[in-house]
């Protein structure tokens, strides 16, 4: 027998009662021992256990009992064969709660390092070639609206680079229409940007640094790999984790694509993408009997030029924010560079 408070559903008054089980029936009796009501056990709803909260036993007409004697009520339930659901047991077990938290952490880690990149690749591959080309044009428009300026490079020099690139033997890539465009880089300095669809923007500053020969071809082959593998779109979608997952599972990428141009300009390739693009460029250079070391030389020249720029900033005693901006400008703002990359290219076999 367990003490309880009974609410009949008609008034807010609490009636002190005692609850017990007899012949498969739940019976309520008042303080005087008179039976108030009874009902089959199967018709009752028993609330989940909460550590300090009262348990509720609800009748089919909405009346209910409120019980605070957890030990007595647990014993009564056990005697009737009642078993708590697994959710209720988990909520009241610190061990299961701890295991659940650990499982959640593992899921987040696995999702971030494996599920998210995998999904980003799938989403990038579902973009039709025509839509990818449109995204490239939109991104180029964003570049031209204040980030870069018209090129001052002689037309003959521009055409020489285009002809040299067109003459390169490269893996077939029918989904992309490659075009080499030239712009004065200004704030982005010596740089090459691979846009969705096949457009590669080369700055005048990069041409002045590398020339039109094998070093430039190595950089362009590197950029072509980013286009072929859709690395840019993958990076953008991976940065928009929730949007990418929603887009893939719902099959609607329109809202996510609207953010691509802005995200492309702030994008930073992953080290894996850079290594993949380096390997692609090395193979292209070899296939065309050009020295793979030309790409390593190009990266070293870019690093040296970037370092010289930082030193000039230091000598000019610029404030920390402006110096930090110079750190982020140029080729390495979108193409992370490490000494290991240069060494790997030089040692490639």
From TrEMBL:
Record keywords, A-Z: Hydrolase, Membrane, Metal-binding, Metalloprotease, Protease, Transmembrane, Transmembrane helix, Zinc
Residues covered by region (Disordered): 303-349
Cofactor(s), names only, from the UniProt record: Zn(2+)
A Gene Ontology BP annotation from the UniProt entry: proteolysis involved in protein catabolic process
A GO MF term: metal ion binding
Cofactor note: Binds 1 zinc ion per subunit.
Compositional bias segments (type: Basic and acidic residues): 314-324, 337-349
Cited Gene3D superfamilies: Metalloproteases ('zincins'), catalytic domain (3.30.2010.10)
Transmembrane annotation, as ranges: 96-115
Domain of life: Bacteria
Domain DUF7092: 1-80
Keyword check for Phosphoprotein: no
Peptidase M48 domain sequence ranges: 190-347
Pfam families named among the record's database cross-references: DUF7092 (PF23368), Peptidase_M48 (PF01435)
GO CC, alphabetical: membrane
InterPro entries, A to Z: DUF7092, Mito/Outer_Membr_Metalloprot, Peptidase_M48
Keyword presence, Transmembrane helix: yes
Family: Belongs to the peptidase M48 family.
Protein name listed in UniProt: Peptidase M48
Organism encoding this protein: Cupriavidus pauculus
């Amino acid at each position: 027998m367990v003490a309880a408070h009974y609410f009949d559903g008609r008034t807010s008054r609490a009636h002190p009662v005692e609850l017990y089980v007899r012949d498969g029936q739940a019976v309520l009796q008042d303080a005087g021992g008179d039976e108030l009501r009874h009902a089959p056990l199967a018709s009752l709803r028993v609330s989940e256990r909460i550590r300090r909260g009262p348990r509720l036993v609800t009748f089919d007409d909405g009346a209910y009992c409120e019980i605070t004697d957890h030990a007595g009520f647990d014993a009564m339930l056990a005697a009737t064969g009642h078993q708590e659901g697994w959710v209720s047991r988990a909520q009241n077990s610190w061990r299961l709660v701890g295991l659940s938290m650990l499982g959640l952490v593992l899921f987040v880690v696995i999702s971030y390092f494996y599920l998210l990149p995998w999904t980003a690749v799938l989403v990038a591959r579902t973009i039709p070639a025509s839509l990818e080309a449109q995204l490239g044009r939109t991104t180029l428009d964003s570049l031209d609206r204040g980030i870069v300026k018209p090129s001052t490079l002689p037309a003959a020099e521009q055409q020489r680079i285009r002809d040299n690139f067109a003459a390169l033997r490269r893996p077939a890539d029918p989904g992309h229409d490659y075009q080499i465009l030239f712009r004065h880089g200004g704030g982005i300095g010596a740089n090459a940007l691979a846009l969705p669809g096949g457009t590669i923007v080369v700055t005048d500053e990069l041409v002045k640094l590398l020339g039109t020969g094998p070093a430039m071809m190595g950089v362009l082959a590197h950029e072509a790999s980013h286009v072929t593998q859709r690395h840019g779109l993958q990076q953008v979608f991976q940065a928009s984790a929730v949007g990418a997952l929603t887009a893939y599972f719902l099959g609607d990428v329109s809202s996510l694509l609207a953010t691509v141009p802005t995200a492309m300009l702030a994008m930073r390739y992953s080290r894996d993408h850079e290594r993949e693009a380096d390997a692609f460029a090395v193979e292209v250079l070899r296939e065309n009997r050009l020295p793979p070391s030309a790409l390593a030389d190009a990266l070293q020249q870019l690093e040296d030029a970037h370092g010289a720029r930082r030193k000039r900033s230091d000598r000019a005693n610029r404030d920390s924010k402006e110096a930090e901006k110079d750190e982020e400008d140029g080729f390495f703002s979108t193409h992370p560079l490490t000494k290991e990359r240069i060494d790997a290219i030089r040692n490639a076999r």
